[in-house]
Amino acid sequence: GNSVTQMEGPVTLSEEAFLTINCTYTATGYPSLFWYVQYPGEGLQLLLKATKADDKGSNKGFEATYRKETTSFHLEKGSVQVSDSAVYFCALRVYNNNDMRFGAGTRLTVKP
Amino acid sequence: EAQVTQNPRYLITVTGKKLTVTCSQNMNHEYMSWYRQDPGLGLRQIYYSMNVEVTDKGDVPEGYKVSRKEKRNFPLILESPSPNQTSLYFCASSSPGSRHEQYFGPGTRLTVT
Prior knowledge:
The complex is a heterodimer.
Chain A: E1 3-6, E2 11-14, E3 19-21, E4 23-26, E5 31-38, E6 44-50, E7 56-59, E8 62-65, E9 75-77, E10 86-94, E11 100-102, E12 106-111
Parallel strand pairs in A: 2-12
Antiparallel strand pairs in A: 1-4, 3-9, 5-6, 5-10, 7-8, 8-9, 10-11, 10-12
Chain B: E1 4-7, E2 10-13, E3 19-25, E4 31-38, E5 42-51, E6 54-57, E7 65-66, E8 76-78, E9 87-94, E10 103-104, E11 108-112
Parallel strand pairs in B: 2-11
Antiparallel strand pairs in B: 1-3, 3-8, 4-5, 4-9, 5-6, 7-8, 9-10, 9-11
């Protein structure tokens, strides 16, 4: 079946550190891949997405590249800020299937 | 403003007392879905709907019901809530097709005692 595995947290970084959150997937068909962010007390917001292999999604300094050969979609940011503290979810949605699968989420805390 | 709204945001109830969580979207989306979020498990789909009067079970449908009588609304019904349904619930909507992201409501935190 379709599934997403992401790096377990929590992750704690100092401000301006480099961030990587790993995400790998298993899917039949041709998935689109997403990263969502959940700030405390809020719903999930789309952070970025990529809909085909080798696409790079980017937003707010975050980026992730759709790697079909390694079935991965790792999230990166060069310099994190305290305001980036949140829970990050990797997700996929398969072509011709509206089902969306989420990873377990990774909690990021950025300290000043 | 494009949005998904849920009500109530917080609810504490007792075992067996029927409740409904409402969900409404103003984006004319065909697809709507309910998820529950539990620590370490991510989001798990409860039910989804492809359009008016078309609903289907997700991964964890036991103990829940839904209806889709209007395109904009997709209420979640717990006929006889139990403590294991204590969770954070999210409604989402989207256009159909894998390229489209889902838009999420703010969540409903339910506690069943």
